Amino acid sequence: MKLPIFLKPIGAHSWAKETLRLHAKDVRNPAYSSKQIEFAQTGDHLWNSAQLQMVREGKMHGFLRMYWAKKILEWTAEGPEEALALAIRLNDKYSLDGRDPNGYTGMRVIK
């Protein structure tokens, strides 16, 4: 997924970009596929519940959305760019505020 400029990490603080770069190749344990993440098949019951609420009701509490996005980063072996792309794809597909600044703001914790 090609990210629009406003979602790319270029606006992040230099320390945050450097941290993401340094840890992009870290081994993820556990690591989940995008399908496992989308269908809430992780070992984290809170995260799974938040994902299922978004799928079923189209919403997720703001604090949970930040946790949700952070865990996607933690579990995505392909690195931070792919984690952000997956979070955006899921947010836009399932959330009522998908493609809205509020939804993107909640996911910016990845950057």
Quick recap:
The protein has about 110 residues and is mainly α.
Describe the structure.
The chain is mostly helical. The protein has one domain (29-110): DNA Cyclobutane Dipyrimidine Photolyase, subunit A, domain 3 (Orthogonal Bundle), CATH 1.10.579. The chain is 58% helix and 0% strand. It has helices at residues 14-23, 34-38, 45-57, 62-75, 80-94, 101-107. It catalyses: cyclobutadipyrimidine (in DNA) = 2 pyrimidine residues (in DNA). This is Deoxyribodipyrimidine photo-lyase. One of its GO terms (biological process) is photoreactive repair.
Number of domains: 1
Uncertain regions spanning at least 5 consecutive residues: none
What best-fitting shape do the alpha-carbon axes yield? Answer: globular
The secondary structure category is: mainly alpha
**What's the CATH architecture name?**
Orthogonal Bundle
Binned, the helix content reads: 55-70%
In DSSP terms, counting alpha (H) and pi (I) runs of 4 or more, how many helices?
6
Q: Output the CATH homologous superfamily.
A: DNA Cyclobutane Dipyrimidine Photolyase, subunit A, domain 3
Report the sheet with the most strands, covering strand number, pairing sense and barrel closure: none
CATH topology: DNA Cyclobutane Dipyrimidine Photolyase, subunit A, domain 3
Q: What percent of residues are in strands?
A: under 5%
What pattern of helices and strands is seen along the backbone?
Answer: HHHHHH
What is the end-to-end distance?
Answer: 16 Å
> What would you report as the Rg, rounded to the nearest angstrom?
13 Å
The average pLDDT value, as a whole number, equals: 87
Cofactor: FAD
Enzyme class: lyase
GO molecular function, one term: DNA binding
Catalytic activity: cyclobutadipyrimidine (in DNA) = 2 pyrimidine residues (in DNA)
